Each structure stands twice: as C-alpha cells, then as structure tokens.
Amino acid sequence: MTIKVGAIGTGGMAGGHFRNLDRFEEVEFAAFCDISAERTANRCNEYGGNPYTDHREMFDKEDLDAVYICTPPFAHGDQELAACERQIPIFVEKPIATQMAIAEQINWAIQEKGIITSVGYHWRYQDNADYARSVLADQKIVGALGYWMGGMPGVAWWRVREQSGGQHVEQTTHIFDLCRYLVDSEVIAVHGLAVQGNTRDVANYDVDDMSVVNISFANGVVANIASACMLKGWGRVKLEVFCNGLVIDISGGSISINRDGETENYSNEVNGYTHEDRVFIDAVISGDSSEIRSPYSDALKTLQLTLAASQSFETGQPVFLS
C-alpha cells in the first residue's frame, strides 16, 4: 500500500520528518507547500512531488492520504481545518497554536470528522519514557522538577511573543508534555512568574528571559518547570520525577534511576522522531490510531497548561483549569 503524503511547511523541523518518511517504503511524497517557493522547489527536487505556495490549491489538486503540518506556531489554523474538510489524517508539529480558540476550533473539526491525528511530542516515543512509565507503574509520584534552560534558537519568529508564545509555549512545551504524560493526571491549577528586559542585544525580542511555573495535578502531584533562553555555553534540559525513595531523571538521550541512593543509568536507544512518524504512518495505513501517544485532543491540554502559565505571568495570580 502506498501512502501519498503532502507537507505544509518545509523548514528545518520538517526536514527531520521528511528524512524519516523517505526511509518508509510505503510513503510517496506527493506535494510540498511553503510560503517560500524556493524552499518548496528544493524539497521537490530532493524527494519528488509537486510544489505549491498555497495549501488550499495543494488540497484541491492532490489526492493525499496524509499531511504533515510543520509551520511556526502562529501560522496554525486554516491548513488544519482545510485538511479536516477533506478528511485527511494530520500530523502537526508542536505547539499546535498560540491561541486556545484556534486550537479548540481545530479540535472540534477533528472530532466531528473523526480524523486521525498525531502531534510531534517525540519525547513520549523514546524508550526512556517507556522505561520511566514501567518503573512508575507501582509507585506514587510525589512531585517533579523540569527544565529547558539554555540559549536562543536562531529563527526570527521565536523571539517574538505573538508569533511563538514564548519559550515555555514553544520549546519547554516538551517538558510540560512529558510531565503530563508521566504524572497521568489532569492539571487543576497553574501559577507562574517570569522576568523580562535582561536581553537587550537581540532585535525584536520580547519574550521572557526566564520563567518558573508551578503546577498542581488532580492526583495531588506538584511540579515546577523552569525555562531560560539567555544563557550561553550552559544548558539543562530534563525532567526529574520524585517518589518515596526513588528519583527518575530523564533527558533527551538518557535516563537515570536512583533507588535509595543507588543509581542505574541507561542510554536512550529509540529515536523518538522516527518512532512517532512510524506510528502515525501505520495508523494511516490501518485506520487504527490507538498506538498514537499524542493525538491532537491530548496536545490541546498541554497547550492549555502553557497558555495558562502565560496568563499567570501577566496577572501574578494562579489560573484554575476545569
């Protein structure tokens, strides 16, 4: 069976998915769409398919079995809705939007049409996340600490709050999402603090230099997640989960388990990017989406959490989620 795949957004993040898909025998690249005609032409030269600069024209002219949407956060909306109109399965890169109203409209269309969806929270697909869940299965989590602290990505839209939502929405979202995935409970309250104005040498920069977000879960677990983008030559990107006598430390490439002071270390051997793409394509082929770990409806809850933090930054007050 051949799966004809289209893509909207052909930049760097999309390129990782294209390389994965190119290795899957079932996948045929049918079309690429981007506001940059040059980028689109380059992708077509590399993988085949037809070039477009208008996603609605692509949808009208191509018979697609699936579409990858890898646009910047502020650009999400019409392309997802257009795919839903045509009942095309959707893979969306995180974050799914910068506004809840847009994401909720898309989610409503997805549910109404019964669309297969997956969102690019690749940390869920790594075997260190699998191992953490297996260890935590018979444990009571007490709390968690998370971090995405380092430097600033080079793309211009990232440093503009209106376009990215800020670091906690666009980048640290992976840590917020992994925390939700492991704690496995609804968020009931969010309280955050942020500081700005310490980065003056970057043009059009209006995001937070650093933020801290406290989270309360319905099962009693508490968490704190920190973001920072003004650092140079130093970084900390991880989630630590704490139980009675047990600490689980998860980074992108490894996991360590400390039981009563004795530590075991394991390297991550499953590429989360490749695994999430394989699971999505298999779901499109079979029509069974049960193995997808981050459908759109679940990613919506991670967006709700991070946007609640944005609201709390502004008001200084906790935000209670229903």
Task: Looking at this protein, list some descriptive labels.
alpha/beta; Rossmann fold; Dihydrodipicolinate Reductase, domain 2; 11 helices; nine-stranded mixed β-sheet; 2 domains; 36% helix; six-stranded parallel β-sheet; 322 residues; 27% strand; 15 strands
How do the strands and helices of this protein lay out in sequence?
Layout: E1 3-8, H1 12-22, E2 27-33, H2 37-47, E3 50-52, H3 55-61, E4 66-69, H4 78-85, E5 90-92, H5 100-113, E6 117-119, H6 127-136, E7 141-149, H7 161-164, H8 167-170, H9 173-183, E8 187-195, E9 210-217, E10 222-228, E11 236-243, E12 246-251, E13 254-259, E14 262-267, H10 272-286, H11 296-315, E15 319-320
Parallel strand pairs: 1-2, 1-4, 2-3, 4-5, 5-6, 7-10
Antiparallel strand pairs: 7-11, 8-9, 8-15, 9-10, 11-12, 12-13, 13-14
Compute the average pLDDT.
97
CATH architecture field of the largest domain: 2-Layer Sandwich
Q: Helical residue percent? A: 25-40%
The CATH class of the largest domain:
Alpha Beta
Order of helices and strands: EHEHEHEHEHEHEHHHEEEEEEEHHE
Judging from the principal axes of the Cα atoms, what is the shape?
globular
CATH homologous superfamily designation of the largest domain: Dihydrodipicolinate Reductase, domain 2
Low-confidence stretches: none
What's the CATH topology label of the largest domain? Dihydrodipicolinate Reductase, domain 2
Number of helices: 11
Write down how many β-strands occur, each being a DSSP E stretch of 2 or more residues: 15
Strand order of the largest sheet: 14-13-12-11-7-10-9-8-15
Distance between the termini: 43 Å
Strand percentage lies at: 25-35%
Q: Report the major sheet.
A: 9 strands, mixed
> How many structurally independent domains?
2
Specify Rg, calculated over alpha carbons: 20 Å
